[in-house]
């Protein structure tokens, strides 16, 4: 049982505040606001099954609409929570065409952080009661505080992230995040509405036996990826590996970090850049992975070194246990 011996997220945030490089309490307040939004979204996501059961009574279209609503709802909850607390100067979201500026042209407001979010990741899983998530990424703005926030504040390479994390609404709800000093996981006790530090200092094992990829797209993959998948399936001392694909990046990543594994969303002959978004999905997960002894590449490059050119940019994404990512890289390099 989660009880006294587990620190709460609130306690953890206060204890660690002084270790931030430019600590003013602003980042702590921001993480606190995300914690609050996560609880509200969790409450909505938990009810979704119930709504689906009622909705499924006749019309399948309504289920589709409900799901879409939940995407929008999660988006609204995160944006409103951050807006109301006047805690950031800008937000970019997978669900919004453009970035949102918050009092950023008001000299009184000296907020220096921008947040980028995927409010509901894996949302096609909602319908079938399978885990979904939220992903967030935090940067310090590069334009001066008190002036309107600009696109360039959001288009920073992932290596400039100040913090990143995800919430997985699974069999239990967890908030996992890093501020650049390791990765810690907190489990929500739903009866108390409190997150407890249940997974301190999370690490990817160096090796793993799980590979996660949508193999339905196999025929479209580049030869290097195809060869690596065949390598995973070969009969050797420690192979074949196990294939696990939930279709929700957050959940697939979370499992692989705990058990050891690799997640792949390659580019293919039909989608030149892959599917996942650099700013809302790949960068935050790559930051977490590197902070947890893992590795994340977008082909030949380290994800965190890519300089973004647009908000909704997509990139191929390979993330997981170091040795597995290195092995994949070997296969990719054969076809340079
Ligand atoms: P989102 O629900 O935010 O659009 O993200 C879905 C993403 C990711 O979570 C998942 O791993 C991937 O899309 C699944 O894509 P496929 O269905 O193409 O495998
Ligand atoms: Mn997503
Ligand atoms: Mn999404």
UniProtKB/TrEMBL annotation:
<comment type="pathway">
    <text>Carbohydrate biosynthesis; Calvin cycle.</text>
</comment>
<feature type="binding site">
    <location>
        <position position="245"/>
    </location>
    <ligand>
        <name>substrate</name>
    </ligand>
</feature>
<dbReference type="Pfam" id="PF00316">
    <property type="entry name" value="FBPase"/>
</dbReference>
<dbReference type="GO" id="GO:0006002">
    <property type="term" value="P:fructose 6-phosphate metabolic process"/>
</dbReference>
<feature type="binding site">
    <location>
        <position position="118"/>
    </location>
    <ligand>
        <name>Mg(2+) 2</name>
    </ligand>
</feature>
<keyword id="KW-0460">Magnesium</keyword>
<feature type="binding site">
    <location>
        <position position="275"/>
    </location>
    <ligand>
        <name>substrate</name>
    </ligand>
</feature>
<feature type="binding site">
    <location>
        <position position="121"/>
    </location>
    <ligand>
        <name>Mg(2+) 2</name>
    </ligand>
</feature>
<dbReference type="InterPro" id="IPR020548">
    <property type="entry name" value="Fructose_bisphosphatase_AS"/>
</dbReference>
<feature type="domain" description="Fructose-1-6-bisphosphatase class I N-terminal">
    <location>
        <begin position="7"/>
        <end position="200"/>
    </location>
</feature>
<dbReference type="GO" id="GO:0000287">
    <property type="term" value="F:magnesium ion binding"/>
</dbReference>
<dbReference type="GO" id="GO:0030388">
    <property type="term" value="P:fructose 1,6-bisphosphate metabolic process"/>
</dbReference>
<dbReference type="Pfam" id="PF18913">
    <property type="entry name" value="FBPase_C"/>
</dbReference>
<dbReference type="InterPro" id="IPR000146">
    <property type="entry name" value="FBPase_class-1"/>
</dbReference>
<feature type="binding site">
    <location>
        <position position="118"/>
    </location>
    <ligand>
        <name>Mg(2+) 1</name>
    </ligand>
</feature>
<keyword id="KW-0378">Hydrolase</keyword>
<feature type="binding site">
    <location>
        <position position="214"/>
    </location>
    <ligand>
        <name>substrate</name>
    </ligand>
</feature>
<feature type="binding site">
    <location>
        <position position="120"/>
    </location>
    <ligand>
        <name>Mg(2+) 1</name>
    </ligand>
</feature>
<dbReference type="GO" id="GO:0006000">
    <property type="term" value="P:fructose metabolic process"/>
</dbReference>
<protein>
    <recommendedName>
        <fullName>Fructose-1,6-bisphosphatase class 1</fullName>
        <ecNumber>3.1.3.11</ecNumber>
    </recommendedName>
</protein>
<feature type="binding site">
    <location>
        <begin position="121"/>
        <end position="124"/>
    </location>
    <ligand>
        <name>substrate</name>
    </ligand>
</feature>
<keyword id="KW-0479">Metal-binding</keyword>
<dbReference type="GO" id="GO:0005986">
    <property type="term" value="P:sucrose biosynthetic process"/>
</dbReference>
<dbReference type="InterPro" id="IPR033391">
    <property type="entry name" value="FBPase_N"/>
</dbReference>
<feature type="domain" description="Fructose-1-6-bisphosphatase class 1 C-terminal">
    <location>
        <begin position="205"/>
        <end position="332"/>
    </location>
</feature>
<feature type="binding site">
    <location>
        <position position="94"/>
    </location>
    <ligand>
        <name>Mg(2+) 1</name>
    </ligand>
</feature>
<comment type="subunit">
    <text>Homotetramer.</text>
</comment>
<comment type="similarity">
    <text>Belongs to the FBPase class 1 family.</text>
</comment>
<keyword id="KW-0119">Carbohydrate metabolism</keyword>
<dbReference type="GO" id="GO:0006094">
    <property type="term" value="P:gluconeogenesis"/>
</dbReference>
<feature type="binding site">
    <location>
        <position position="281"/>
    </location>
    <ligand>
        <name>Mg(2+) 2</name>
    </ligand>
</feature>
<dbReference type="GO" id="GO:0005829">
    <property type="term" value="C:cytosol"/>
</dbReference>
<keyword id="KW-0963">Cytoplasm</keyword>
<dbReference type="GO" id="GO:0042132">
    <property type="term" value="F:fructose 1,6-bisphosphate 1-phosphatase activity"/>
</dbReference>
<dbReference type="InterPro" id="IPR044015">
    <property type="entry name" value="FBPase_C_dom"/>
</dbReference>
<dbReference type="InterPro" id="IPR028343">
    <property type="entry name" value="FBPtase"/>
</dbReference>
């Amino acid at each position: 049982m989660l009880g006294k011996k587990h620190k709460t997220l609130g306690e953890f945030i206060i204890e660690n505040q002084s270790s931030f490089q430019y600590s003013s309490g602003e980042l702590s307040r921001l993480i606190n606001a995300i914690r609050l939004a996560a609880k509200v979204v969790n409450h909505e996501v938990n009810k979704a099954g119930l709504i689906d059961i009622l909705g499924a009574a006749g019309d399948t279209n309504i289920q589709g609409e409900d799901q879409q609503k939940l995407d929008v709802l999660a988006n609204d909850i995160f944006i409103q929570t951050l807006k109301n607390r006047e805690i950031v100067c800008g937000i970019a979201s997978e669900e919004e065409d453009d970035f949102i500026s918050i009092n950023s042209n008001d000299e009184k407001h000296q907020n220096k952080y921008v947040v980028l979010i995927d409010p509901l990741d894996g949302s096609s899983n909602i319908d079938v009661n399978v885990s979904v998530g939220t992903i967030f990424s935090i940067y310090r703005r590069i334009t001066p505080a008190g002036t309107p926030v600009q696109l360039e504040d959001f288009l920073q390479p992932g290596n400039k992230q100040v913090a990143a994390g995800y919430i997985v609404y699974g069999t239990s709800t967890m908030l996992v995040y890093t501020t650049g000093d390791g990765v810690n996981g907190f489990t929500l006790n739903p009866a108390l509405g409190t997150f407890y530090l249940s997974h301190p200092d999370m690490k990817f094992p160096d090796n793993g036996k799980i590979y996660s990829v949508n193999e339905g797209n196999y025929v479209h993959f580049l030869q290097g990826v195809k060869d690596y998948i065949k390598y995973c399936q070969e009969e050797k001392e420690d192979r074949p590996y196990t294939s696990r694909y939930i279709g929700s990046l957050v959940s697939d990543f979370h499992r692989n970090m705990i058990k050891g594994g690799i997640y792949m969303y390659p580019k293919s002959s039909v989608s030149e850049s892959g599917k996942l978004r650099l700013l809302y999905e790949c960068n935050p997960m790559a930051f977490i992975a590197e902070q947890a002894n893992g590795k994340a590449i977008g082909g030949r490059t380290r994800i965190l070194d890519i300089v973004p050119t647009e908000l909704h940019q997509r990139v191929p994404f390979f993330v997981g246990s170091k040795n597995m990512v290195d092995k994949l890289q070997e296969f990719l390099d054969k076809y340079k």
